[in-house]
Each structure stands twice: as C-alpha cells, then as structure tokens.
Design a protein that fits this description.
This protein is mainly alpha-helical. It has helices spanning 3-35, 39-50, 52-63, 67-92, 101-108, 117-137, 147-167, 179-210, 214-227, 230-239, 243-259, 262-267, 275-298, 307-328; strands spanning 111-113, 304-306. InterPro entries: NaCa_Exmemb, NCX_ion-bd_dom_sf.
C-alpha cells in the first residue's frame, strides 16, 4: 500500500477517534453540571474522554507489540499541545462576547483570559505527575516503563482527579438524560477503538516506508495527529465564550496522557532504547506546564497570558524542534 494512502488513512482514523471522543463528552458534561464542578475541575473530569484517543492509541500500540510508537505519542502530544492550544485560544478569544465586561478588559489589554485557580487545580499537579514519571523512568536502576510504574501512575491520576474535584466543587444542577445521546456515546466508544487501531497501523507502515524509528514516528506523526483535531474543539469552545475551559482543558488532557496512557505501555514493559531522546523529550514535556504556571503567576489584576507570553510558548516549541533536529537526531 502506497505511503500516501497510509497518510490518508492516518488522517481519517484520527478524525474518527476524535469524533468518538466528542460523542462520549455528552454524558460527562451532564455529570459535571449535576455535580456542580467549576471549569477547571470539570476539565479534569472531561479529560477522561478528550484524551481517550491518545489512551486508545497506546493500548493498541502495546497490544500490537509496537509500544515505542505509543511512547513517542505520549511524549510528542504532550509537548506540542500546550503551545498549540494556547495560541489557538488566544486568537479565538479576540472577539467581543455579549454582556461580558471582564472579557472586554482582557481584549483591551491583549490578554488571553484565564482563571488563576487553574494553576493550583491543574498545572502544578500536572508538573508533579511529570516529576513522578522522571523519578520512575530516568534512574539507571529503574530505567524504562515497568508494570509497577503503570500502577503508580494510575494512582497518581486518581489523586489528580480527586484533588481537582475537591478544589472545584460548587452546587450542582438537575439534568435530564437523553437516551439518543447515550447511544451516540456507545457509537463514539467504538469509533475511538477503530480509529486508534488504524492510527497505529498507519504509523507502523509510514515509519517502515520512511525508514525511521518507531519512537520518532510516535513523536512527530502519531503525537501530532492525535493532537491536531483538538484545534477545532479549542477554537469552538473559546469562540463560544468559555475561554478558561477551552484553555485549561489541554492541561487536564495531558495529565491523563501521562498517567492513564502510560499504563498500557508500562504493563507490557517498554524499554528506553535511546536515553538521550527520552530525557530531552521529557524535559520539554515539563517545560511547557512550567511556563504555563510561571506566566499565570506573573499576571496580577487581569489573570491570563499576554501576547509575548503566547509567542514564548511557540518559541519554546521551535527550540524543541531545533534541539531534536541538530542535537538529538543529528539530521544535519
């Protein structure tokens, strides 16, 4: 099968997986209202679904014996997602929202509005998760992803979700469950499974045709493709006036990817073949939420990201690409 046909299959599979995730969002959104969760806490709950394509891809790659694709997907999607979604959110929020004087102040100041609570609820706990991954995988005696590491990371996600819900609980609302949307959720789950299978299958064939390693394919093919459809969701949510929800959801998604999506790779014992490539990528995974936390902490009366801070996120990703090309992969 021609490599370009596999590229088309990859794109269609990524779309199918994210369509499925969108259908699964409905029951969780209803639960968020019923439980009275704030935007930041709700993002942590909804991330179980919004990050499900990445989790399904890693389950599939582990089952097919190509866990390095999953490892690359785990790292690559978590590096590109924050600068990409923050940039998309900034441009999507450059419009007036009816009867929202607070947002007008952010527009006048060229800021991307953000609830400061998102740092304590999401960003700092996510940094703790990355630190835990480093402790479990970097020391020579423990190097690699092992079953015990997977169980520890599942426990870390349970703690992350519990913390977010406790910190962001308000009075709940009464909701009515729609049977049609519930059945669509079932169809969504099937779409995620089928999409994940073909994402991994297409990546296997593309890396074979291009003669590149599976982990590099995971970093720059699978990782980007599983993240790219989130652009439309972020744009739509922010355009609809939910600026904080649209901007913070990426942190919650990444926390799920680094914990729940870590589990299947650890369960089949994934070795780290290229240590330099792994630690460099893990360092940039940590850099993105660190910048996020520092930039929000700098904001005073109006909480959010300024235009130069948005550019700083994008510059950090460009530095990552240059580091990979010239110092890690040594392509030139």
């Amino acid at each position: 099968m021609n490599v370009w046909l596999w590229v088309v299959v990859l794109g269609l599979a990524a779309w199918a997986a994210h369509w499925g995730a969108d259908q699964l969002l409905t029951p969780l959104k209803m639960l968020r209202k019923q439980w009275g969760l704030t935007a930041s806490a709700g993002a942590a709950l909804l991330a179980i679904v919004t990050a499900s394509p990445e989790v399904a891809v890693n389950v599939t790659s582990a089952a097919r014996g190509v866990s390095e694709i999953g490892l690359g997907n785990l790292l690559g999607s978590n590096i590109i997602s924050i600068p990409l979604m923050v940039s998309i959110a900034y441009f999507a929020s450059r419009k007036q929202f009816k009867n929202n004087k607070e947002h007008q102040k952010h527009l006048d100041a060229n800021l991307l509005a953000l609830n400061k609570r998102s740092v304590s609820v999401l960003s700092i706990p996510y940094l703790a998760i990355i630190a835990l991954v480093a402790i479990l995988t970097l020391p020579k005696a423990w190097r690699g992803l092992q079953p015990i590491d997977g169980y520890i990371m599942l426990a870390a996600y349970a703690a992350f979700l519990t913390h977010a819900i406790i910190k962001g609980r308000e009075k709940g609302e009464k909701v009515e469950w729609d049977k049609k949307k519930v059945w669509l959720s079932v169809a969504g789950a099937l779409a995620i499974a089928v999409g994940a299978f073909f994402i991994v299958k297409a990546t296997e064939n593309i890396v074979s045709a291009l003669n590149i390693s599976e982990i590099v394919g995971g970093l720059f093919i699978t990782g980007i493709m599983t993240t790219a459809p989130e652009i439309f969701k972020t744009w739509s949510v922010v355009k609809g006036g939910e600026v904080t929800a649209g901007t913070t959801s990426v942190i919650a998604d990444n926390a799920v990817t680094m914990t729940v999506a870590f589990f299947p790779l650890a369960l089949v014992t994934t070795p780290i073949e290229d240590f330099q490539l792994f630690w460099v990528n893990l360092a940039f995974v940590g850099l993105m939420p660190l910048l996020y936390s520092l930039f929000v902490h700098q904001s005073k009366e109006l909480h959010g990201f300024s235009r130069w801070q948005i550019f700083a996120f994008d510059a950090a990703y460009i530095v990552y690409l240059l580091t990979m090309v010239f110092f890690v992969l040594k392509l030139f």
